[in-house]
Amino acid sequence: MGLTARLLRSCVETLVGFVLSPAFCLIILPIHVLLFSPFIALGLCSSDAAVGVPPALLAWRRLPYLIPMVLFVDLPITILFLATNLIEGLFLRNSLTLAVYSLCRGSSQLPYREPTLPDTEAGLHARDRSRPNTIDGARYRGHDSVWAALEGDGDNVRPGDVRLISLKWLMALAERGGVLPRRQDLPDEAFLSSAQLRRIEQGARRGFDLAGFVEAFERFSKEPSLSSFLGFCASFFGRKRNPDRLLPIISVSYCWLEAAHPDREGRQLQLLSRKLRGLYGGRGLLGACREYGFSDMGVFLDWSAGYQKDPALFAERRAYEASRSAAEKAAFDRMLDNTMDLWYAHASVTVVLLTQLPDELPAGFDRSRTYDTRGWTTFERCSAELGAKLSKLGFAKWKLVIDVASDDGGAQRRLPATPERMATLLAACRFTNGADSATVLALYKKTAKAVLGTVEKLYYYGLPLVRGDAWTSPALLAEALNHCESLRTLILTGNRLDDEGVAELAAGLEDAALPALESLYVGSNRFGARGVGALCGVFHRGVAPTLQMLNVGSMPIGDEGAVALAAALATGKPSHGLHLGWCDVGDEGAMALAAALPAAGQGCRVIASNNRIGLAGQVALVDALEAKHGPQLGNGMAVQQMNMLPWLYPLVRAWGRGWRRVVESGRFTICKTAHLYD
């Protein structure tokens, strides 16, 4: 571009900015007050070491304190922030200033330096695994497989092999102090047919389409444009029936108290009913389901879903075995072999974990046989945690995995257990029938291969990844990711990962792992330059060869971390976009990124806003972006900085610090209502 043309364009952009910027600030002022100032306020009263959102702040963010907080905290912060940002943007960092600075110092002639990746430890060699079948994976996400399990599929399952009972009927039975009979002895009114369940599913209300919102956000992140931005804005108003794509089905995971009968005295049923009624502020699980539009829920309990032997004949072994006919035994085997995985691993089925035992237990009961020591319950819970289920629903007000021992109606989140880990777990578990061990392991291997091998998105917002933890360590995450051959999006934000944790995660990844990964979000964690080096070091081992977008925002990686990212960028990782806002990057890191950008992927963009980059680094990045993509308004927005006025950058850092604390707490749904951060 000629000198005159560039200066003329910069003059026009600056004049337009003087006209439009004040109006734009007035328009976004209420949005900033409602959505962004709370993060800044939280960050201002926090240290870098602070973790999560304190309960005291949550109390101040609810009525009657909400309005005073908005008027006397959020509004002044917004006015100060926008006013000083306006001054810096219009007078100190406008387009004309950057263009003149660039021409004076010749920043567009920056020499390209061949970057090198930091030395990293060798990873694990890839294991030979059979590739998962996408049809098998669809079994755990589409609704057709569940309906086929109830109605018959013409091959492996016949109509009536499995029957679900009504949650309303079950709760009423518990209220009467009754005992749940085996399937053969249940009255017809206890059951819900598949036709009834389909009608219940069709009665779901219309609500916010969270999946559509996420898809629009990801599209805008990958390809920022006017159309993708408008699509993202429109997604705020997206509504659809049954927006969370749920099925009106609950599966209960529980312990059998006796070999012949799971609950002869009805005490487990009483405990389950009491716990379910007390959930969600007293509305109960059934009340939350009704708010979603489900008038009832079908309940899978193995005792009532499949044909069972007569417990009254247990003492007479021959009569006991003969109490279930050959046809009933065949139906039970078909249920066990072809549907048990669905009831716990399916993405749309709610799983209730009865991890507590009743206070009164049968005489002679071994109290060491708890929920966590049983083979079948271990299978059921681990199946529910494989990754098909969302940890947080958009419209429904209940969790897809519910531990009745938890007061908040959820369950402690754990990472997926691989088949190898399940073999270790089952070796330490006990089965009522010892022959079940091999059956359970084979069934879990099939389920885990199908779910992990075909899952395309994994979200772990706010899940602490702690080294040495039995269920949530970085090493266990790496072990699970090695099975995720179809994974396209991985979100590890707010996981409190430090440098050592990232090194452990990187070391556990096999060579050529994550072959389909396109988007990796690791922002709002605790690692710095060393962690970035370990993360980037896996790329030369063939990990994530198709990576398009990498987000490391809101972390103190500094210039050294930016240099490591520049080295990866020069090798084509990521190929499409690198986001490192709020990362405390200065001119040195910006220069390294600008030097690496010419060798990056053809469509690659770098977004490095809200750092401590000065004019030299900002000009270098703008020139590199314009050389790659041509003159665009988005180039300046991608590297917008706010640090020339002495009080502005502390506000920017507080913003990033507050956001990280909110994400670490797992409260990533932001709305300024009576439930802010909920």
UniProtKB/TrEMBL annotation:
One of its GO terms (cellular component) is cytosol. The keyword GTP-binding does not apply. Keywords: GTPase activation, Leucine-rich repeat, Membrane, Repeat, Transmembrane, Transmembrane helix. One of its GO terms (molecular function) is GTPase activator activity. Pfam families: LRR_6. It comes from the Eukaryota. InterPro entries: Leu-rich_rpt, LRR_dom_sf, RanGap. The chain crosses the membrane at residues 12-33, 39-58, 65-87. SUPFAM superfamilies: RNI-like. GO terms for biological process: nucleocytoplasmic transport. This is Uncharacterized protein. The lineage of its organism: Eukaryota, Haptista, Haptophyta, Prymnesiophyceae, Isochrysidales.
